[in-house]
Amino acid sequence: MTGVITYEQDVIAWANEQSRLLRTGQFDRLDIEHLVEEIEDVGKSEQRELASRMAVLLMHLLKWRFQPERRGRSWEATIRIQRQSIARRLQRTPSLKHSLDDADWWEDVWADALAKAIDETGLTDFPPQCPWSIAMILDLNWMPTENEAI
């Protein structure tokens, strides 16, 4: 690939060149190894985004549940926005739904949510495992209450 921008030099210029080569049918000039890596990374990036949004949502649900005196429109807006964003992401990329059934994925997301909640609130008496179902978590009309058993 002499005279061509390499993946290591400039990934954006490289991606544009790979796209041009694909569109013009110049398959013998493609950087297959890096193309495969980039395609795999797209899926990983989508999974990371879903996990990040879910952790933020769970952290705010925890704060809502355990700090009722601090509830406000900002928390409510964050919860609503995260739920809507997660729903759109799952609708656009249905294969992400398998993450919601993966116990290891939930364990990681819950650990992230707990760490964020502890950091933001200073509280440490959160449940060790998520007490809510996925249906509750994603329900636009559901909010935890301080009276619910956990």
From TrEMBL:
InterPro entries: DUF29. Pfam families: DUF29. This is DUF29 family protein.
